[in-house]
């Protein structure tokens, strides 16, 4: 491996600072609960904004750091929860799905490019994969711990109520990232 390749794999101190900053943003946004018929957090917004601002590589590490902090017990998940039990609970698949969203975004950037349409499509596909992974996870855990549940019931509980809020969060993250990138260089 030549020195150019080795240096391109390294994260700089500035990269690490941005990763930490956006990890904190995801945690804080997971604590913000919007009271509606089905309450939702701003966690998804923070994941979208993180990827749009940092790009796929650093964004992936930020999401991974967030999940690892929660896994070791730091209360970074919604409701100030943390620990393996929170991560591997009924809704933990959606949290792990954020990592899949980040991987899809990163892969799209590397394989297709970083054009606006690619970024938007990657976030939408990533969200769909997050929904799919989280819903399968939910069905398995719910069926094991509570009672058998079908796909349509799980979707009506775990996905349908969040479609519109997540679309709004994506639009907000997109608008905010465009505005922020004009003012700061990350």
Tell me about this structure.
This protein is an all-alpha fold. It has one domain: Orthogonal Bundle (Arp2/3 complex 21 kDa subunit ARPC3). The chain has helices spanning 3-9, 13-31, 43-71, 84-87, 92-111, 116-145, 151-158, 163-183; strands spanning 33-34, 40-41. The chain has a two-stranded antiparallel sheet. α3 crosses α5. The chain is globular and about 50 Å long. The protein starts with a helix and ends with a helix.
What is the distance, rounded to the nearest whole angstrom, between the alpha carbons of the first and last residues? 27 Å
Q: Overall mean pLDDT score?
A: 93
What order do the strands of the largest sheet run in, or round the barrel if closed? Answer: 1-2
Question: Low-confidence spans: pLDDT under 50, at least 5 residues?
Answer: none
How many structural domains? 1
Percentage of residues in DSSP E strands = under 5%
Bulk shape = globular
Q: What is the number of beta strands? A: 2
Biggest sheet record = 2 strands, antiparallel
Q: Helical residue percent?
A: over 70%
Total helices: the number is 8
What's the CATH first level? Mainly Alpha
- Structural class by SSE content: mainly alpha
CATH arch. level architecture: Orthogonal Bundle
Order of helices and strands: HHEEHHHHHH
CATH topology tier name = Arp2/3 complex 21 kDa subunit ARPC3
Query: Whole-number radius of gyration?
Result: 17 Å
